[in-house]
Amino acid sequence: MVGDIGIGGDNPVRVQTMTNTDTLDIDATVKQVNECAKAGSELVRITTPTVKHVDALAEIKKQVNVPLVADIHFIPDVAFATLKVADKIRLNPGNTFNNHDELVRFINEAKEAGVPVRIGANHGSLSKRILEKYGNTPEGMVESVMEYARIFHENNFDDLIIAVKASDPLIMIEANRLLVQKLDEERMDYPIHLGVTEAGNASEGRVKSAIGIGTLLMEGIGDTIRVSLTEDPVKEVPVCYDILQATGRRMSRAEFISCPSCGRTLFDIEKVTNIIKKRLGHLKGLRIAIMGCIVNGIGEMGEADFGYVGAGPGKVNLYKGHILAKKNIPEAEAVEELIKLIKEEGKWLD
């Protein structure tokens, strides 16, 4: 549990992001956290480099309604201080604690405080010792994080989350597959956080994230995700939900199937698709097909619950599954008739 949010097991895959404000600017950080939460982020990570920042985190927490994750590096005192404030702590034990005993003391205090911890390894940020043995490889990433996971496990710490991330989605995919294999071999069952780190922005960042995160989600790997974009963190959140929707791991809206259109298309399919998505997008879990003509009509609607298919100039056929429900509806009336059909089937939600 991170605050009141469950991670792993039968819980849905959780969506998170990270603020990019100065944590000491409490007003700006509160504003951004609340904007991220409104967009759908269930956890928000905040950089917490000093004890002064821990005090700011405590004040921020009073003004938001979403669990906060403290991001910590280098200073052991900060890690210990955040146990009294944060809902979860993200740290790299190798660059935070001075020795094994200090790490074990932190584990015991985190256990007593009931604060979950995320540990991880990033491609390109491995220790000299790991690099000498494994090189800058997925194997090195996994061993880098497993050597600390074993210490948490030996000390009966159950509230651990693990991440192995890379900017190259193929390396990130391979590393996570190896991580799952290693956890299984050593009989550890910790939740996994997924992300393509430093993915970039715009379409490049979104495509890399979809490849890396999406591939693993379809294999059943991943309990929390973040899409890391060089943009306002609020913009990361809908991409997370799009990936979850496309992989079928978490349905947060209606699913739309629409053809790309061609010379056979019998109406302005781009315009109609946008109208239907706006009117019906809130129908969570419903699959709706919009097809331009009868050639790619019912056959290519797949498993759609309802279909809107061009039947002739200015005419539309409406389907319930693959069954023709309403024939030759005037295009001007077709969207309302589709809504009426959905209501008749008891699938409408206001």
Features:
Sulfite Reductase Hemoprotein, domain 1, elongated, 8-stranded parallel β-barrel, TIM Barrel, 12 helices, 350 residues, 5-stranded mixed sheet, 2 domains
Walk me through what this model shows.
- With 350 residues, this protein is an alpha/beta fold.
- The protein folds into 2 domains: 234 residues, Dihydropteroate synthase-like (TIM Barrel, Alpha-Beta Barrel); 90 residues, Sulfite Reductase Hemoprotein, domain 1, CATH 3.30.413.
- Helix content is 42%, strand content 19%.
- The chain contains 12 helices and 13 strands.
- The strands form 2 sheets. Strands 1-2-3-4-5-6-7-8 form an 8-stranded parallel barrel, surrounded by 7 helices. The protein has a 5-stranded mixed beta sheet with strand order 9-10-11-12-13, with helices on one face.
- Helix 6 packs across helix 7.
- It is elongated and about 75 Å long.
- The model has no long low-confidence stretch (mean pLDDT 95).
